[in-house]
Amino acid sequence: MIAENKQPAAAQAHLPVLDHVSHSSISCFQQCPLKWKFRYVDKLEEDFKGVALVFGSSVHAAVERHFQSILETGGPPTLEQLLEAFDECWQSFDAASIRYGKNDDAESMRELAARMLETFQGSEFAKPTGTIVAVEESMRGEFVQGMPDVLARVDLAVQDGDELVLTDFKTSRSRWNANQAQSNAEQLLLYADLAGRVLDGKRIKLQFAVVTKTKTPVLEVHEVCYDAARLKRSKAIFGKVWAAIKSGVYYPAPSQMNCYGCGYRKACDSFTG
């Protein structure tokens, strides 16, 4: 008789009940399984928020305000209105919990945001030729059989002729090149897979819009090629990560780069297995 393969009781006790997963949550587990546990199972508050996260979220909020204004009124907002959106998002974070980099403070970050948003407003990306159909739109569906639905949030969707252009907006310390854009393609391929189910075979164009956090910001758009083989690989990886999550085995993955900016350092130091 072949013994039935059952999960150990310890693993079952740690198995989270999740309504959905996301590209960022899967990436979090790949980066550090223990960090994933703290965030998605224990739901711990981080001891601090890195300024890069706060800044990126706030710039995103301003860009969202720009395209939402065009969608609703047909015209773009002023730079002052974009900065109001930036400020509103920034102030939604606990000021005392923000960890700044060397020589940075709230004032210097806002000045940087003003330069970046001015560059954004002057770019062709800020003036889409097609029709904006969605801003910060959520898409959800089965990505891999046997795991929860994947939830994705598209920054901008524009209908341009018979083509749907899906854009993910990024802030970056330096300019991207084509190889860097292609190496980050999994997120956009996920969008294409979910969006393609409701488009009746229409063509989908995928791109990143990247603005630099430099003294003189630059905004560049990088198109990402659809790659069916890579999408298949991404699904296989998602499936393997989900199997690891279900195992209930969580452990730290020390890294000089990732640990420095992690808000769970105290919890990690206290972890005994």
Q: Would you kindly provide a written description of the structure presented here, covering whatever features stand out?
A:
- The structure is a single chain.
- The protein has 11 helices and 8 strands.
- With about 270 residues, it is α/β, with parallel strands linked by helices.
- Strands 1, 4, 5, 6, 7 and 8 form a 6-stranded mixed β-sheet that branches.
- A hairpin with a 2-residue loop joins strand 5 and strand 6 (about 165-170).
- Helix 2 (about 25-30) packs across helix 3, helix 4 crosses helix 5 (about 80-90) and helix 5 crosses helix 6.
- The relative contact order is 0.17.
Topology:
Blueprint: H1 9-14, E1 20-21, H2 23-31, H3 33-41, E2 49-50, H4 51-73, H5 79-91, E3 98-99, H6 106-121, E4 131-141, E5 149-160, E6 163-172, H7 178-183, H8 186-195, E7 203-212, E8 219-224, H9 228-247, H10 256-260, H11 265-270
Parallel strand pairs: 1-5, 2-3, 6-7
Antiparallel strand pairs: 4-5, 5-6, 7-8
Helix pairs in contact: 2-3, 4-5, 4-6, 5-6
